[in-house]
Write a structure and sequence with these properties.
The complex is a heterohexamer of chains A (296), B (638), C (359), D (147), E (100) and F (138).
Chain A lengths: L1 H44 L9 H11 L3 E2 L4 H20 L4 H22 L2 H32 L4 H6 L4 H4 L1 H14 L27 H24 L5 H21 L5 H26 L1
Helix pairs in contact in A: 1-3, 1-9, 1-10, 2-9, 3-4, 3-9, 4-5, 5-8, 5-11, 8-11, 9-10
Chain B lengths: L2 H27 L3 H26 L4 E4 L4 H24 L3 H21 L9 E4 H32 L7 H20 L3 H19 L5 H32 L4 H6 L5 H14 L7 H5 L5 H10 L1 H16 L3 H22 L4 H22 L2 H32 L10 H4 L1 H15 L4 H16 L4 H23 L14 H19 L1 H14 L10 H19 L9 E2 L14 E3 L5 E3 L8 H4 L1 H23 L5
Antiparallel strand pairs in B: 1-2, 4-5
Helix pairs in contact in B: 1-2, 1-6, 2-5, 3-4, 3-7, 4-8, 5-6, 5-12, 5-16, 5-21, 5-22, 6-7, 7-8, 8-10, 10-13, 10-25, 12-16, 13-15, 13-16, 14-15, 14-20, 14-25, 15-16, 16-18, 16-19, 16-21, 16-22, 18-20, 18-21
Chain D lengths: L8 E6 L5 H10 L11 E2 L8 E5 L2 E2 L2 H10 L6 E5 L1 H5 L9 E3 L9 E3 L6 H28 L1
Parallel strand pairs in D: 1-2, 1-3, 3-5, 5-7
Antiparallel strand pairs in D: 4-6
Helix pairs in contact in D: 1-4
The chains are: A mainly alpha (296), B mainly alpha (638), C alpha+beta (359), D alpha/beta (147), E alpha+beta (100), F alpha/beta (138).
The complex binds NI-FE oxidized active center (NFV) and iron/sulfur cluster (3 copies).
């Protein structure tokens, strides 16, 4: 009996390390592909042909071929650490670690990104940074509520436990699911909430936070965005516990929905974004939590 | 435990209470500034060392009662109480402040009546005691307190000689109060006799009052009276608690009271209210903001790191009794309201000290909330918060103090380019801020613990933490950004900062980082045994998670050292200014033929998070809750 | 310390297709002051009259702006014709009206796209421009150029359109109209669009008049004024009423322009139906002597050409006051008090055309 | 082959263009011509751009702006003058405030004629520019290898 | 509308993979059928951008395609009708090609 | 169908009063434009109300004459007046927002004030590279 337990633990450790490694390697590939597909689908929605699916990779490789220009010599370090912590977050997630820790690490990464914006020291990057902060303020509550909800539904904060739990958290957390989908739009930098930096040029902040980052440094930012996609989608996946197939299907559906939203909404202003996300979090997220806690 | 051992502890404890008082008297008597300053160094270091020795040497004890008795001391306290009341009375009359006058009269008459009527029965079996919580508190007071005193040497020199020549130099008084205050703080955490505890409590009130009024201009005097008024309000509740306790249960000892459990709800509630006033919780929070007029070491020592912690200390003490009761829930609500409202307000503030003050109140609110919840996990989280907050906030206040002296402004917006102008200080501020909310640092760990505690105990309350943290994130990061953003390179100038200031700052930076690295150890040795009764290392933050946190910490430290020192072949270009750049990096050619610099200010969102609206909402709701709280305890009267 | 951010907005800025600068003074994101600076497109082409004769100047006039090119040429020619008392063949008048309205559609679609982009609705931008390409195809087929028509001429038009082509245009316009209905649905009824447009940048009726606003900007504030009512070209021969809106906000401006899209298609149909046969130009002899203020309605509003000849081949003075110039005072007045996020959109709601403005 | 060819990002600036060429540049981005097929993105930010599309001749006030944008672009970079105004000053070259073609101010690598330019011509021009870009990239690499 | 576009064929015209037939009458570029030219220099005089250089003596006619604004003025004025406006636009050149 | 265009000549001292009358009658200021003639300078102030076009023509003997600004009546006049100042070098006093000659930063100052000799036509286009790239690593 005891032996069995030990083996099991080792097995779990093994699996989680393998998952972590897989993420390290496949994460950006997956992220890049999804981004490429996203761009293609968006183009089609706009009546265009669109770029090749591999375009995001070309972009990144291209950026590495460019000269490095900076405004301050120390500015790129923030980008390195942004990437580092994004990867770290992802690894934690895929190793099945504590969901709260994942969120904190993600926040830390995002903060490095924001600081990178400030460090850029141009009016647009600083405003971009402020806006990114507003965005963080908008989505943070809902993301934390997701973790709380997961815990209430599965009695564990561990991603590993959640994805192996036979119960489907979504059955208990429909509100939180809706709320999370809502804020995912912010996290994926999609219209209507692409306030701080948008994927497209043409907006009041030029390129927002990334205005002063170019060449290889910009490539790293792009890679960090690639790395971000798998675990953001992974959040959705969590709602389906061990029902993997269903989870994957819903992930795809949610992502498609995000693209659709991207293409059917005007960009909102930050006031609306913060208010709306908070209200959504309060109604769907918090409401869900209260109901759960009342049900016991 | 052997008797010798106990005696040693008792001696150390008495030393910690007595020595600062003695030192205070000596310092008051030294007229020469230089000599006094040197003495402050010596005394400060002694206190620091002794407190460390006490904790390191006797950290393993669980809880020891010390039956120290001294008739003389009690006399001193009795008369001391009178003297203090008289002092406040006289000053109130002098400055025509009726409200404090009124309260002090009530309080003194209550106590005089009580002591005269029952004085002979007011015997405590154990006047003092030591347990892990006291030790933790003592360590904070000893280390941070003495560091701040040392810092004050340089700061006050600069303060009087350069910055404010118009203010009368009363440094002898200043250090007298500072050390006397330390003595009182030690007294609070080691007292078991509630009368003693109350005495020390009142000493801190008085010290705070005198120090806030230190500048003796109209604003500081008004604020000082506001502070004393609110603290006296708490004091009255404290006194009533003692009296009621004694009259109904015939005891004035803390440990006995705690042992009585749910039978003593009324004194517990009243003590909580006293604690909340001292901890500047919402309806009473305005005094702490006013207290920011005092010189910065005062703000650091009294109004963020230690004195206000006396309030939450009391709450943590009674927390097990609050846990699970309606009163507890209400206390938690007060903390919650305070946390969320003040976090929001902090967004709209640009005065550095005010931001720090609001964040202090917010964090105290969190601690109060945990105490109200009262489950072991919550108490554990509360103590973590006390420790981490004391260190990081101390560091922040001290750095802001220095920056203020150098920049002649403490407005956050004036801290542009700080990373270039004063790199070392800027990094200290950054460490302090990171310590307040960032992932691998202490406060975040604590908040994490709070969240987990809340989910288990009362998921509804998590909402406060969740929204409040979002706000916290916003105002800290934008400040960090301000410091880091280099808009216009300037010369580095960090001269003229005294050794005493640097010493304190470096020590606190080290402490901030060290505490984070060693927190699993601290938790296991000091806090968990106190809270859970045994060392259950894996209860809340499992070892794996601690490990990950430490890895992250490593990354963050690595960050500081990965900043490039020299040219690595990048081409340096001007900032993007819509193509309008002229020569210098931040100048552009503007309309009307002008050449201008762009200006980037942070967002304050004052329309949404303005001080006025939010605080009136906060005060109204929290009054309501406090009224309910008092109401909820009234059934015990009959 | 006041917490005012100052940023240079433009001249090179991705939301601005053309260079213009605004010195934005903001509190958080609230604009408290906006000082404009222009001059990046100032060429000084009015002075070319000294070097080019009055017939050649038509080419210059057409190239004042690539968006409202045709009406520039038309107005210039109209002015010269008035001075020289030239009777333009009636078919030419109808052709001019046809092209004017085509260019209005293309300009408005272009603008709708840009404004959609400014409030962050990329796919709407794309679709507006997709439809616009079909208009350009008609234009190219009839004039030979996609944006610079090159068909204006003193005394008539440079090209004729054969009747078969005219029929085809009707069919194409009907198709375009269908697609325009779809995007106008989104512009007028989409919740997120309304959220951004309604109540933003309100220009009151009185202000609009006294600040000299023109065109859709003025009509959106409830003032009925459209220079086509002066009945130049063939506007006197067709039935139409100016499109109006009352609210004076960004949404009203969108409403007016969307309305004008359909008004234009309707006019095109009428023009083609009523198009008389006949020559399209007359021979011009002599040189202008006299002066005239030629006023016509551009997509952006009233344009004024002040032409003064002294009997020689070269004009003495040509002065162009374009609608955007007239609308700039209004926009400077309404910029303070809005959010940074609305600045690009607000700027665009006057449909600024800097090359027109600065000449 | 370098990846520069697969993802040339552009920045567009209008220096006294009459908008004719301007809107044709924009039209290239829209569904009909959709240059994103070639990975072309209009960045609007010199620091991200590889190709500088400039329409219109340069006037007095513009000189500094055009130089600024050019200097803020990372190497390798290519300048494409679009439209007759940009290639030679066009019909406005005699105006008192016009300096002439863009090459009076910054080195131009590709000239695209047309008044207004056709979108197809712009695409051709950009394709040529990509060639120049790759050339410059090899030179840059050689230079780096030497030093 | 968005969804409709997603499932219908994109409006993109795949230039340069496909080339559209230029429209009849589209103004592209000027050619001179030199054999008919009388070198009368009328076109040079009329050209608003001085894109055409005609040398009566040497009997040369040259056009700078980087100057021609395709206004058609020369075509209109040519007495010999030897100028023709082609529907194909003139091609872009790199700096190297131009200086050659 | 030549539309009726009223033309009224005025002198500088009448200007502001006349313009104020128009303002009171709620005429729209259509434009202000300047013309330099060999012997005099004309400034046209055009107004419109319900398609009624009225033009006041201010006649100046030379460019030294002070012209009072009407921007305190019609705020939008300031744009026209600054333009006239920058292009014709006229002395317009009391503009509410005076750009002081920075409205258009032209290569030639007051380009419209005189008639410069025509520029010699240049025939061959040769790309001139006259700018060194700044900030490149040496
Ligand atoms: N419509 C128009 Fe124009 C003219 N005239 C104007 O501002 O666009 Ni280029
Ligand atoms: S080349 Fe022609 S269309 Fe292009 S900007 Fe110049 S004048 Fe306008
Ligand atoms: S106008 Fe015709 S005939 Fe005369 S030179 Fe020109 S091309 Fe030759
Ligand atoms: S088309 Fe016009 S610009 Fe071109 S050569 Fe002929 S006259 Fe000159």
């Amino acid at each position: 009996m005891a032996d069995c337990y030990v083996i099991n633990r080792e097995l779990i450790a093994m699996v989680s390390i393998i998952m972590g490694l897989l993420y390290l390697v496949l994460g950006p590939l997956f992220g890049g592909l999804v981004t490429g597909l996203d761009r293609r689908i968006s183009a089609r929605m706009q009546g265009r042909f669109g770029p090749p699916i591999l375009q995001p990779f070309y972009d990144v490789l291209k950026l590495f071929e460019k000269e490095q220009i900076v405004v301050r010599r120390s500015q790129n370090v923030y980008v390195y650490f942004y990437l580092l912590f994004i990867v770290f977050t992802g690894v934690l997630f895929f190793m099945g670690e504590d969901l709260l820790l994942v969120i904190f690490s993600l926040t830390l990464a995002a903060i490095f990104f924001v600081l990178a914006g400030y460090k850029g020291g141009s009016p647009f990057s600083i405003i971009g940074a402020e806006r990114e902060l507003l965005q963080m303020m908008a989505y943070e509550p809902m993301v934390l509520m997701m973790a709380v909800g997961m815990y209430m539904a599965t009695k564990s904060f561990y991603v590993g436990d959640i994805v192996t739990s036979p119960a489907m958290p979504i059955m208990l957390l429909p509100g939180i699911f809706i709320g999370l989908t809502y804020v995912l739009t912010i996290k994926l930098r999609k219209s209507p909430f692409d306030l701080s930096t948008s994927h497209h040029g043409h907006q009041e902040l030029v390129k927002g936070i990334t205005t002063e980052y170019s060449g290889p440094a910009l490539a790293l930012i792009e890679i960090a965005h690639f790395y971000e996609v798998p675990f953001l989608v992974g959040f959705v996946f969590l709602f389906f516990g061990s029902h993997w197939l269903l989870g994957l299907l819903v992930c795809a559906a949610v992502y498609f929905l995000e693209i659709l939203i991207d293409n059917t909404f005007a960009r909102t202003k930050w006031q609306f974004m913060v208010a709306a996300s908070w209200v959504v979090a309060a109604i769907f997220g918090f409401g869900n939590i209260i109901i759960l806690s009342l049900l016991g | 435990m052997t008797l010798a051992f106990l005696i040693m502890i008792q001696n150390l404890v008495l030393f910690l209470i007595g020595f600062p008082a003695l030192a205070a008297l000596i310092l008051a008597g030294v007229p020469n500034n230089n000599f006094r300053n040197r003495l402050v160094w010596v005394f400060g270091l002694i206190i620091l060392v002794v407190s460390v020795v006490l904790v390191v040497g006797f950290g393993s004890i669980s809880s020891e009662m010390l039956s120290f008795h001294s008739k003389a001391l009690e006399k001193v306290m009795f008369y001391g109480e009178w003297v203090m009341s008289l002092l406040i009375l006289v000053l109130s009359i002098k400055h025509k402040k009726l409200a404090p006058l009124f309260l002090v009269v009530i309080q003194t008459s209550l106590l005089t009546w009580f002591e005269l009527g029952y004085g002979h029965q007011l015997e405590a079996a154990n006047n003092l005691f030591v347990d892990k919580l006291s030790l933790v508190m003592a360590l904070i007071i000893g280390v941070i307190g003495s560091l701040i005193c040392i810092y004050a040497v340089g700061y006050m020199k600069e303060f009087h000689e350069k910055q404010h020549p118009e203010i009368k130099d009363r440094r002898a008084l200043f250090f007298f109060i500072l050390f006397f205050f330390l003595s009182a703080m030690f007294g609070i955490v080691f007292s078991n006799n509630l009368m003693w505890l109350f005495f020390f409590w009142e000493v801190t009130t008085l010290s705070s009052f005198l120090l806030i009024g230190y500048k003796q201009n109209e604003e500081s005097i008004n604020n000082a009276f506001r502070a004393v008024f609110m603290n006296l309000f708490g004091g009255v509740f404290f006194a009533m608690a003692i009296i009621y306790l004694f009259l109904t249960t015939n005891t004035i000892e803390l440990n006995q009271m705690l042992g009585l459990g749910g039978l003593v709800m009324l004194p517990v509630v009243f003590l909580s209210i006293a604690g909340m006033t001292k901890a500047a919780q919402m309806p009473f929070s305005s005094w702490l903001l006013g207290a920011m007029v005092a010189p910065t070491p005062v703000s650091a020592l009294l109004h963020s790191s230690t004195m206000v912690k006396a309030g939450v200390y009391l709450l943590i003490r009674v927390a097990p009794l609050l846990g699970g009761t309606l009163a507890g829930l209400l206390v938690a609500c007060v903390g919650g309201v305070t946390f969320i409202i003040t976090s929001f307000i902090a967004i709209s503030q640009s005065d550095a000290k005010k931001v720090l003050a609001y964040s202090t109140i917010a964090n105290l609110g969190l601690i109060v909330m945990c105490s109200g919840i009262g489950t072991p996990a919550a108490i554990w989280a509360a103590i973590l918060l006390v420790i981490f907050h004391a260190i990081a906030k101390g560091l922040l206040f001290l750095s802001v103090g220095v920056v203020e002296h150098k920049l002649h402004s403490r407005d956050i917006e004036s801290m542009d380019n700080l990373i270039i102008k004063m790199p070392r200080l800027a990094w200290m501020l950054l460490v302090g801020m990171a310590g307040m909310f960032l992932a691998p640092f202490g406060m975040l760990i604590s908040k994490w613990a709070v969240l987990k505690a809340l989910v288990d105990a009362n998921p509804g309350l998590t909402v406060v933490l969740i929204y409040g943290s979002a706000a916290t994130l916003f105002f800290w990061v934008k400040w960090m950004g301000k410091i880091l953003a280099v808009v216009q390179p300037e010369k580095t100038d960090e001269t003229g900062i005294s050794r005493s200031e640097w010493t304190a700052l470096y020590a606190l930076v080290t402490a901030t980082i060290a505490v984070c690295l060693t927190f699993p150890l601290i938790s296991r040795l000091m806090i968990e045994p106190f809270v859970f009764g045994s060392s259950t290392a894996t209860t809340i933050l499992t070892r794996g998670n601690s490990l990950i946190m430490i890895i992250m910490m490593g990354f963050v430290i690595l960050f500081r050292f990965s900043l490039p020192k020299k040219d690595e072949g990048e081409r340096i270009v001007e900032t993007y200014l819509s193509g309008l750049n002229v020569d210098q990096r931040n100048a552009y050619s503007a309309p009307l033929g002008a050449t201008k610099s762009f200006i980037s200010k942070n967002y304050y969102l004052s329309k949404y998070f303005g001080e006025k609206n939010l605080s009136s909402i906060g005060v109204a709701t929290s009054w309501l809750i406090v009224m309910l709280l008092i109401g909820s305890s009234l059934p015990w009267l009959v | 310390m006041s917490n005012r951010t100052i940023i240079p907005f433009g001249p090179q800025h991705p939301v601005l297709p053309e260079p213009i600068h605004l010195d934005l003074v903001m509190e958080d994101e609230l604009v408290v002051e906006a000082i404009p600076r222009i001059g990046w497109v100032h060429r000084g082409l009015e002075k070319l009259v000294e070097k080019k004769d009055f017939l050649e100047m038509t080419y210059v006039a057409e190239r004042i702006c690539g968006i409202c090119s045709f009406i520039h040429g038309l107005t210039y020619c109209h002015g010269i014709e008035q001075i020289m008392n030239i009777e333009v063949p009636i078919r030419a008048h109808f052709l001019r009206t046809l092209w004017s309205e085509l260019s209005r559609i293309h300009s408005h679609l272009l603008w709708l796209g840009l404004v959609a982009d400014a409030f962050g609705f990329e796919s709407l931008f794309m679709h507006s421009w997709r439809i616009r390409e079909k208009v350009l195809d008609i234009i190219e087929a009839t004039t030979g150029g996609r944006v610079i028509f090159g068909s204006a001429k003193v005394g008539g038009t440079r090209r004729d359109i054969d009747n078969e082509m005219l029929k085809r245009i009707i069919a194409q316009v009907t198709e375009i109209e269908k697609e325009m209905k779809e995007i106008s649905q989104t512009f007028l009824n989409d919740y997120s669009v309304q959220q951004r447009l309604k109540g933003v940048g309100i220009l009151s009726k009185a202000d609009a008049n006294m600040l000299g606003a023109v065109g859709p900007m003025l009509r959106a504030s409830g003032i009925n004024q459209d220079m086509r009512k002066l009945n130049y070209a063939a506007y006197g021969h067709i039935d139409w009423e100016p499109v109006m809106a009352q609210d004076g906000d960004c949404f009203a401006r969108v409403e007016v322009r969307v309305g004008e899209l359909f008004q234009a298609t309707d006019m095109i149909r009428q023009v083609i139906e009523k198009m008389p046969e006949g020559p399209v130009d007359v021979k011009v002899t002599g040189s202008p002597n006299g002066e005239f203020f030629a006023r016509t309605e551009q997509p952006r509003g009233e344009v004024i050409y002040y032409l003064k000849g002294n009997g020689s081949k070269n004009l003495e003075r040509m002065r162009v006051r374009t609608p955007t110039f007239a609308n700039i005072p209004a926009i400077t007045k309404i910029l303070p008090g809005i959010q940074l996020a609305d600045v690009p959109m607000m700027l665009l709601t006057i449909d600024p055309c800097i090359s027109c403005t600065e000449r | 082959m370098t990846y520069l060819a697969k993802s040339p990002w552009i920045i567009h600036y209008d220096a006294t263009s009459c908008n004719g060429c301007d809107i044709e540049v924009l039209a290239c981005l829209t569904p009909m011509y959709d240059v994103e097929r070639f990975g072309i993105i209009n960045t609007g930010n010199p620091k991200h751009a590889d190709i500088f599309l400039i329409t219109g001749s340069v006037n007095e006030q513009n000189v500094k702006v055009v130089e600024n944008i050019y200097n803020q672009m990372p190497n390798p970079k290519v300048v494409v003058a679009i439209g007759i105004c940009a290639t030679s000053g066009g019909i406005f070259r005699e105006c008192y405030n016009v300096l002439g073609g863009v090459d009076k101010v910054i080195p131009v690598d590709v000239y695209v004629p047309g008044c207004a330019v056709r979108p197809e011509a712009i695409i051709d021009g950009v394709v040529k520019a990509i060639g120049v870009l790759e050339e410059k990239h090899t030179q840059m690499k050689k230079g780096a290898a030497k030093s | 509308m968005v969804l409709k576009s997603l499932f219908s064929k994109p409006a993109t015209y795949m230039y340069p993979l496909l080339t559209r037939e230029p429209m009849v009458g589209s103004r592209g570029s000027i050619v001179n059928h030199v054999d008919q030219c009388s070198y009368c220099t009328l076109c040079q005089k009329k050209c608003p951008t001085d894109a055409i250089v005609v040398d009566r003596e040497k009997k040369t006619w040259a056009i700078d395609s980087m100057r021609c604004i395709t206004c058609n003025a020369c075509v209109d004025v040519c007495p010999k009708s030897c100028l023709e406006m082609l529907t194909t636009y003139s091609s872009s050149k790199t700096a190297a090609e131009l200086s050659r | 169908m030549i539309e009726e265009q009223k033309l009224i000549e005025i002198i500088p001292s009448e200007l502001v009063a006349k313009v104020r009358d128009m303002f009171v009658e709620q005429y729209r200021l259509v434009q202000i434009g300047c013309t330099k003639l060999p012997d005099r300078i004309e400034i046209n102030y055009s107004f419109d109300k319900n398609y009624q076009f009225i033009n006041y023509r201010l006649i100046l003997a030379n460019d030294k004459v002070e012209v009072p600004s009407v921007s305190s009546v019609y705020w939008n006049a300031l744009f026209y007046e600054n333009e006239i100042h920058d292009l014709f070098g006229l002395n317009i006093v009391g503009i509410v927002l005076d750009f002081k000659g920075t409205f258009y930063e032209t290569k030639e100052k007051y380009a419209f004030a005189t008639c410069p000799p025509p520029i010699e036509p240049v025939i061959k286009t040769t790309p001139v590279v006259n700018i060194k790239e700044k900030g490149k690593p040496q």
